[in-house]
Amino acid sequence: MTERKPAGVSFESWVERQLREARERGSFDDLPGTGKPLQPASFDELAWVREKLRREDLPVTALLPPALAVAKEVEDLPERLSRERSEVRVRAIIADVNARIDAARRGPQVGPPVRTRFVDVEAAVAGWREAVAARSTPPPPMPAPRRGGAQPLDASSMGTAYVGCRS
User: Fold this and answer.
1) What is the pLDDT of residue 33?
2) Number of alpha helices (DSSP H) and beta strands (DSSP E) in the chain
3) How many independent structural domains does the chain possess?
4) Which of the residues 14, 50, 60, 154 has the least number of beta carbons within 10 Å of its own beta carbon?
5) CA 153 – CA 156 distance, rounded (Å)
6) Angle made by CA atoms 97, 132, 81, in degrees to the nearest 5
7) Are the C-beta atoms of residues 81 and 128 closer than 8 Å to each other?
8) Which domain holds residue 112?
């Protein structure tokens, strides 16, 4: 604990003296980050919130009011479902999202009102099936090489990406 500032001594000289004595004692030698550059000053007032979410491994929706959190979940649902391989799992995710929408509607209204509609399970599963089918379709086969030696290429057979390119 520090001593009280003596009367008649300016505040600045008293603080400077305490810092000098602490440096002489070696009080600042083993501080974490010693010798490392300072982080650049951030003018973002919510930077600490993002850092906390990253450290705690929390989704951004953890800080949103229920109405906005469920709306964000429904918005991100197609991307989330596209990573799934099982229809049973897809249906379980949709049921979970619908349960959260129901809980947000029934709970106390904090923030804006809940306007998110329930996710139509069959329509979402049909969309997931189409995405899976599109993903599993093999690419078209390459055309067979021409016989009879080298023939000149015309620009129409090369597509628009190669027109005007030089090698």
Assistant:
1) 79
2) 6, 0
3) 1
4) 154
5) 8
6) 15
7) yes
8) 64-136
